[in-house]
């Protein structure tokens, strides 16, 4: 069974940093492209970042470029999202998602990041 | 950047009725990379349709997708009580884009 379990969310002050993790199991993690998608409270889905299978290519939404870094450890079956200089508008549930041919076929349950003083 | 516009914003229907949800792209897109998702309150989204018309594993055949170019449609042939949710379309091109969502509510 495919499982994606996010962790690392919480309450953080504006300007601070946070690192999210996503533990993957039940599939060959190392061959899949992975993304993070976020959803602000009561709002729609917004794609944040994508990494290809061997970490040779990373893509970011314009809204987070320069502040967020996606990475992966295929030996540990884990996806990461390093978020720096956090802003109130980064407040959202962050979902770890597996990509298959441009669509997102498996989603974690999400981890809530709240940026507030 | 491609923008996906979903219509209507809210659709009020009854169980047993047919639902037709629209997703319009700001420019022609490849149907190969057009997907639909369902999200229920408090849950993560679930993939329904990929490649504009291929149902994901385990998705009932009352869900169908169609379209090409700039206009895509998700149809639910006969609504079941569990189908009332928010639906999003999504495209992958140079980046990834979601529509703003259509809320399907119980009439």
Structure description:
The complex is a heterodimer of chains A (117) and B (107). With 117 residues, chain A is mostly beta strands. In chain A, 0% of the residues lie in helices and 54% in strands. Chain A is built from no helices and 11 strands. In chain A, the strands form 2 sheets. In chain A, strands 2, 4, 5, 6, 9, 10 and 11 form a 7-stranded mixed beta sheet that branches. In chain A, strand 7 (68-73) and strand 8 (78-83) form a beta hairpin. Chain A is globular, with a radius of gyration of 13 Å. Chain B is mainly beta. In chain B, strands 2, 4, 5, 6, 8, 9 and 10 form a 7-stranded mixed beta sheet that branches. A 3-stranded antiparallel beta sheet of chain B has the order 1-3-7, with no helix packed on it. In chain B, a hairpin with a 6-residue loop joins strand 4 and strand 5. Chain B is globular. The chains are: A mainly beta (117), B mainly beta (107).
Concise synopsis of the structure shown:
The complex is a heterodimer of chains A (117) and B (107). Chain A is mainly beta.
Task: Tell me what portion of residues of chain A adopts beta-strand conformation.
Answer: over 45%
Largest sheet descriptor of chain A: 7 strands, mixed
Specify the overall morphology of chain A.
globular
- Give the rounded overall mean pLDDT of chain A: 97
User: How are helices and strands ordered from N to C of chain A?
Assistant: EEEEEEEEEEE
- The string of secondary-structure elements of chain B, in order, is EEEEEEEEEE
Strand proportion of chain B, as a percent range, falls in: over 45%
